[in-house]
Amino acid sequence: MAFHLGRLFKEIPVFSQFPTSGYGYSEETKPMLNTSFGFVPWDDAHHPDISRTNGELDGRWIFINGNNTPRIARVSLSTFETEEIIELPNSAGNHSSSFITENTEYVVAGTRFSVPVPQRDMPINEYKGNFKGALSFISIAPDTGRLNLDFQMMMPGFNYDLSHPGRGKSHGWFFFTTYNTEEANSLMEVNSSQNDKDFIAAVNWKMIAEYVKNGGGTKMATEYAHNVYDEHTHSATSTMKKEVITVDPTKVPGAVFFLPTPKSPHGCDVDPSGQYIIGNGKLSADLTIHSFDKMIAAIEGKKFDGEAYGIPILRFEDVLAGTVKSGGLGPLHTEFDDKGNAYTTFFISSEVVKWKLGTWEVLDRQPTFYSVGHLMIPGGNSRKPFGKYVVAMNKITKDRYLPTGPEMEHSAQIYDISGDKMELIYDFPTHGEPHYAAGCPADLLAPKSKKIYRLDDNKHPYAVTSPDQAKVVREGNEVHVYMSTIRSHFTPDNIEGIKVGDKVYFHITNHEQDFDVPHGFAMIGQNTSELLIMPGQTKTSVWEPKKVGVSAVLLYGFLFSATPRNARLCEGLPGRFKCSLNLFLRRIVYKI
Amino acid sequence: MKTSNLKSMLGPFLIGLLLLGCNEAPKETNSGDPSGSIATSKEQGQAFIENDESTPTVLSIAINSPDHTTLVAAVQAADLENALVNAGPLMVFAPTNEAFDALPAGTVENLLKPENKDALANILKHHVTPGKYDKAFLKNFKKLGQANDQNTTVEVKGDDVYVGGAKILASVPAGNGIVHVVDKVILPPNQ
To answer: Which stretch of A257-271, A574-588, B13-27, B126-140 has the lowest confidence by average pLDDT?
Structure first.
């Protein structure tokens, strides 16, 4: 996850190891990447979404989904560090995620692909009717942000592609696009597009949550990891959970309905008023807009057009608010400004199209370079968009910048949307494929961004809060080095008596209490990464010496004096290892 | 200028030799400015990137075919070049010049008029399917959903495959899809 708008402010590792800071390498953060499959040090992050109060961005946390090994993460927007990762059982391709309800009650995560639940070996030709699509509702503690997998709805075995919460009048509902409602398992291209319409699933999550709260649902044995990072101990723990509550939607009448929507709808977006639900059929040229009021009227009038697996299907004509005849090809995603306009990306025709909510007329179109996926207006998927700019995130760059061989960074473009016509004002390469983004005004985050961790609040079990506590403790072949660092030395500065075969834990506490004075640490031949330790923080690096000799420790960071200290050579004794700490400059951090 | 450039490129290739001809990329390029210039013009986008290393796109295959000059002129009149170089995959049913000639007299000329751009685009998009299926695989389908949001039919008669009543004469794989050369213009069903 990267924070920038053409200028990179910070790259936040979430599901991936990150040698710059040691995330996923340090002993404290390795548990963050634990899953029921063991340590999984990467993922495919897709959809960040910022926490909300009354449907407006509140800037407390940002959530993001790991698509490949289904996970949801919560990132603090005061430390800008990943604080929590929860794995999702019964899921395969965690794609219709991670979207936040009106008051950050839930982060919601739908599975793109359906699987047997519980998982078991099953012939693929028994897919139809036997696979389930899990929609996970993860509750968020209002004060701490702590995540809890409250329940999973076990929906029919369709593909749940994208989703968004209702807002305003439709608060309490959640909408998911589906495709492959044919439940095809072979010749997918032929068989999964035979229905003229798939569905948008409308889920009354308030009703289901109430049902679960009153003891509804079935407890099911499963296994998923829940990893929590504590800002005070500077350490993460991983707990393996063994149970999840599943809900059969047919057991809660009135909670789930299907809205027929043409052509394998992909994006599922809700306008700021909560009235319109937009389905972008990716095999289509047109956008389908459903009306929340009409949906409620049809439900109350019980005007159903059959059912699928016991879930009532509403009549297309009864819920349709309008169609945007776009003239584009391959509509994917829609966001909104604060003036009643919507902006939709078209992948195949490489453009952003601006259209009017209610009249459905196309007002403007601008090309993107090239093949745009998502777009983002700050707050553009909330009740209060900040409709000054839209960022288009492209999947193809080609000739846009100086060439860098077959692999290149991909392009994003910023358009000024304050006038009648969109105006491309900036074009920049971003790391990887810029999949989706979340944005908000800087003054929502800047005032509360943490500058240092307080040393007197450091609860790390191996922290040393003053240099005289520094020590080396041997426990069998484990050696714990309690170490402190401050400009420009660290304590202890000589460690002797380490043997080949030992496992050495360097627990380093940064005693600086100044903004932006990190210290770095690494050992030669260390089979892990460097650490970057922020002021007041403790991090631990493991080193298993393999060769006899004298080793240098690289300590770097905000150092102005580069005098080698204690660069004393020690005689290596057979089978023994002496270590002398050699402090020298590896890198000066220049301030620009 | 556009037309004259095109004519100069159209060598006497046979359909079967299309792939050989396709290294001749369109020369009317307007490569993006490396500085990230944001100026836009009509001839901007992926279709106008100079690229002689990649497998030809469905667009460059059509441009390099002497039997598809009418189709190419129509694609340009409808401003659909950029859509046809998209990563896709896209399946294009490409009527030959002869197929266009078989339309009632004046039809093509009328469609090429600027005021009929939308109608022309609608007809052309009815010749495009999101996907990439060879002729043999197409036999699995009864219908295809076309890019203009309407369906067309698939019929199998012996070894032949007919899409919207047009017979597939030849097929040329492209980097971003496949071109099926067809003997008729596939008119969209009345809405």
So the answer is: A574-588
Beta bridge partners of A507: A482, A540
Provide the CA A371 distance to its chain's centre, in angstroms: 23
CB A168 within 8 A of CB A136: no
B118: chain A residues, CB-CB within 8 Å: 327
Q: How far apart are CA A294 and CA A275, in angstroms?
A: 9
SS3 sequence of B106-117: CHHHHHCCHHHH
> How far, in whole angstroms, is CA A535 from its chain's centroid?
26
Q: How many helices, marked H, and strands, marked E, lie in chain B? A: 8, 7
The predicted structure's pLDDT at residue A82: 98
How far CA B101 is from CA of A337, A484, A556, B71, B98, in Å, comes to 48, 85, 75, 11, 5
Q: Which of A188-192's residues contact partners 24+ apart within 8 Å by CB, and which partners? A: A189/B131, A189/B133, A190/B140, A190/B141, A192/A264
Minimal CA–CA distance to B155: which of B144, B139, B170? B139
Closest in B34, B82, B131 to A402, CB measured: B34
Q: Is the peptide bond before B89 cis (omega within 30 degrees of 0)?
A: yes
Domains and CATH numbers, chain A: 2-448 (2.130.10.10), 455-580 (2.60.40.420)
Between CA A141 and CA A147 the distance in angstroms is: 7
Please state, rounded to an integer, the average pLDDT across all residues of chain A: 89
Q: What residue spans of A337-473 are helical by DSSP H?
A: none
The count of other CB atoms within 10 Å of the CB of residue A221 is: 9
Q: Residues A90-98: what's their mean pLDDT?
A: 95
Distance from CA of A398 to the nearest CA of B (A): 8
**A348 vs B147: CB contact, 8 Å cut-off?**
yes
Residues of chain B short of pLDDT 50, as ranges, are 1-40
CB atoms within 10 A of CB A172: 18
Number of Cβ atoms within 10 Å of the Cβ of A310:
12
Give SS3 for B181: strand
Task: Report the distance separating Cα A75 and Cα A64, nearest Å.
Answer: 8
Amino acid at A385: P
- pTM of the predicted model over 0.95: no
Shortest alpha-carbon distance between residue A295 and chain B (Å): 24
The domain locations on chain B are 2-31+42-182
- For domain B2-31+42-182, give the CATH number: 2.30.180.10
DSSP A267-286: EEEE-TTS-EEEEEETT-SE
pLDDT at residue A551 above 50?
A: yes
* Chain B environment of A367 (Cβ under 8 Å): 40, 44-45, 82
Is residue A327 less than 8 Å (CB to CB) from chain B?
yes
Find the DSSP H helices in A301-346.
Answer: 316-319
For the beta carbon of residue A289, count every other beta carbon within 10 angstroms.
Answer: 25
At residue A552 the predicted structure's pLDDT band, cuts being 50, 70 and 90, is: low
Q: Is A426 on the interface with B (CB under 8 A)?
A: yes
